[in-house]
Amino acid sequence: MSRVGKKPIPIPSKTKVSYKDGMISVEGEKGKLTRTIHDAVNLDVQDNEIHVTMEKDTREIRAIQGLTRSLVSNMVTGVSAGFERILEINGIGYRAEVSGNQIVLNLGYSHPINFEIPKGISAEVDRNNTIKLSGIDKEALGQMAASIRRLRPPEPYKGKGIKYAQEKIQRKAGKTGAK
């Protein structure tokens, strides 16, 4: 049984947290995030810490407590330090470039793919075909990275495609030569 929900969330300096009527608002150096909190849990903001407490102690509510604690912790981390995801593009002729609020991807299809960058997320493309995504909302950032990766997932034979920087591709042996 996990005890994630019982751990207090430290509030860094220069970060303001307000909780009222089931809505939490976290404001920091990088921006502001708000979220609705489930009715089964309450938040206690005091002494530069946030505590997530339960109304009743059941299995489902303990799960909601842990989820709420993780979501609020990600909000606090996002507005104070931010999050970052790095994608690598591997393949001959595969490339990406940022054009306005779009990423233009050439991934071996007959046409370039224009991917819209959501509000609150910034993207950079390096010379060695790495896409660096950054933002304060971890959920939106992960969804965007997954959507870009889904356009051309890495294949197991040559490793061509889009992959996360920390991801290891399980490679397969190709066809063997005729005997």
UniProtKB/TrEMBL annotation:
GO biological process: cytoplasmic translation
Top-rank lineage group of the source organism: Bacteria
Stated name of the protein: Large ribosomal subunit protein uL6
Keyword entries, A-Z: Ribonucleoprotein, Ribosomal protein, RNA-binding, rRNA-binding
Gene: rplF
Pfam families the UniProt entry points to: Ribosomal_L6
Family: Belongs to the universal ribosomal protein uL6 family.
Classification of source organism: Bacteria, Pseudomonadati, Thermodesulfobacteriota, Desulfobacteria, Desulfobacterales
Subunit structure: Part of the 50S ribosomal subunit.
Residues forming coiled coils: none
